[in-house]
Amino acid sequence: MAEEIKKSVGYSDTPIIPGSCWHVHDGNRPQPRVVTPGTASCQEKAGLPPSDAIVLFDGSSLGNWLSNDNQSAPWKLENGYMEVVPGTGNIHTRTEFGDCQLHLEFASPEVVRGEGQGRGNSGVFFMRKFEIQVLDCYENPTYPDGTTGGIYGQFPPLANACRKPGQWNSYDFVFIAPRFAGYQLLTPAYITVFLNGVLLHHMRSIQGPTLHRAITNYDVPMNSVGALELQDHGDLVRFRNIWYRPLYGYDQA
Ligand code: MG
Fold first, then answer.
1. 118 phi and psi, to 5 degrees?
2. pLDDT by position in tens, the chain (length 253)
3. By C-alpha distance, which of 173, 172, 225, 176 is closest to 205?
4. How far is the CA of 5 from the centre of ligand 1 (A)?
5. Distance CA 145, CA 159 (A)
């Protein structure tokens, strides 16, 4: 019988990469996990998430979401999206998570009403604390740190990539939760944001939980996980296709 020959895919006679226990081109280093990619969304239809995504909303149920008082989410569900029901309050996920890649899509109301912060206002709150603004900023000036994609009250986005009212916009985030040791902040939250494929923030350090008309900080310690929250700001904003991928091992070499 022919002896099985193990095919070498790398090297073991090369230097060790500083900060790791692996040789340069080490063939024994663990292979990246296989993930089947999803499909892109279009205006008519939401796409499909990658194979290892945890789906928070696929258009069929609000079962993964809760009201402010932890009852069933009171927003409207129709035609594969959810829509804010003004006055019912924010909703948040049953699940808590920290470091993640998150995808969601939103559409501003097709019938334009109001201006500035009063037009198509909602928001995506990581850990129910850090708001990335959702607003109809298509030909609608407002204060820059309140623009769509702004880290509200802290940093304007690098670009205004909003589609027209009524059209679906695609948001992609990489969120890194803050770390504390007791009351001591070790590292702040970090975020990377793409809107419709356009980079808005790259590893931006968030200054603290979102506040209105005030500066913020990390004086109050927090866990490194929390629910995802969507804002009821009184406007008929729609959401669809919400999923995340936990970044297990993000800070491991
Ligand atoms: Mg908002």
1. -90, 15
2. 455 556 789 999 999 999 999 999 999 999 988 999 999 999 999 999 999 999 999 999 999 999 999 999 999 999 999 999 999 999 999 999 999 999 999 999 999 999 999 999 999 999 999 999 999 999 999 999 999 999 999 999 999 999 999 999 999 999 999 999 999 999 999 999 999 999 999 999 999 999 999 999 999 999 999 999 999 999 999 999 999 999 976 664 3
3. 176
4. 60
5. 12
Ligand 1: distance of its center to the CA of 186 in Å?
Answer: 28
Cα 125 to ligand 1 centre (Å): 9
**pTM metric for this prediction:** 0.93
Enter the tokens of residue 160: 């205004």
Tell me, in angstroms, the distance from the centre of ligand 1 to residue 41's CA: 24
What is the rounded CA–CA span in Å between residue 242 and residue 184? 33
Question: Domains of the chain, with CATH numbers?
Answer: 52-136+156-248 (2.60.120.560)
CA–centroid distance, residue 108 to ligand 1 (Å): 12
